[in-house]
Amino acid sequence: MLDIIPIPAFADNYIWLLHDGRHAAVVDPGEAGPVHDYLERHGLSLGAILCTHHHGDHVGGIAELRKVYNVPVYGPREEHIAGITHPLTAGDTVSLPELGLKLGVIDIRGHTRGHIGYLLPGSPGGVFCGDTLFGCGCGRLFEGSMEELFNSLRRLAELPDDTPVYCAHEYTQANIHFALACEPGNARLKQREADTRALRAANRPTLPSTIALEKATNPFLRCAEPEVIRAAQQFGGATETGELAVFSALRNWKNHFS
Ligand SMILES: [Zn+2]
Prior knowledge:
globular, six-stranded mixed β-sheet
């Protein structure tokens, strides 16, 4: 039976570890120490390393892990990441035979030029979306275009509602403050704020989320909602009401929001 565990790293990163009690794979090991400790402590053998994009807090542990575990390293073909042995493009499949898994690769660029995501098959399956979609928020736009990031989020929103969303940072609580500024009248969002506060007070992760929860509470996936459009116009300077224009206004507004 597959288990998926968030290993905390740095201030607010999660390195997701998939394991069946014997074999394991990790997604976005920004540092090696916490991964190594977890594997040792639980007697797991690492079979693969997967990366979503090139930022140091997602790939910084690859070299050190590979000194100990000589395993394949998967990552986006379009980005330069030292240590990648298996470059990937959208539509490729990653086979993890030790875990009996085949993961799909999707293109979710925007945060970076070649950002990819990994789809876990089955029901509920899952998606490892790196820094593209966060609990109640989305990644910053660093290298792609606004339209690319918008389309990537739309692609994620099209996944089945019950799909677990494995984000790479614990940003949910701060993101909810912004979401409430966008949609103060969203009852589901208010409930999420209460749930999130309780989880964080107990020092527990707010992730994985689900696609359904994100569609109900994440303003970046709700750019056609009248209340979100109004907020984008009032505070984000949106002059048009199309979804991309609203998304773009929210993303820019969020950069300065505190
Ligand atoms: Zn990043």
